[in-house]
Amino acid sequence: MIRPATPADVPEILNMVHELAAYEKAAHEVRVTEEQLRDTLFRDHPAAFAHVAEQDGETVGFALWFLTYSTWRGVHGVYLEDLYVRPQHRGGGHGFALMRRLGEICAERGYQRLEWSVLDWNEPSIRFYEKLGAVNQDDWLRYRLTDEPLRRLAGRRD
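^ that's the sequence the OP posted. Answer follows.
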């Protein structure tokens, strides 16, 4: 079963965020708290949205996403920040069901893009996404500023 996340799901989503970060060899980078995640997902104008996958009353996966905007197409799209299914539940259709729900949201709302990033070594995920018909945007390079370089850009020393 796929359903929108509720505030009661936040602790379990946070646990899965930690599991995903460990899988991606980046556990040391997770800084988000339950309070931050709850505020992000459930304030008056949420910055992001989440859906959870359940099996027999147990939360087995989640998708966390936010809206993007294409100046070329003139409409919103969805950026999938995280898709995670617990290892013992992979292969059971939960990832596909979460992706299908996001596809349905795009279709219902007239959004024309569903995008995400995947680590280049994550072959199981790459195969899964390509099976869905996703196309690698290998002509684009992804860049990021965080921490000190971002503060420097902003002219801040704090």
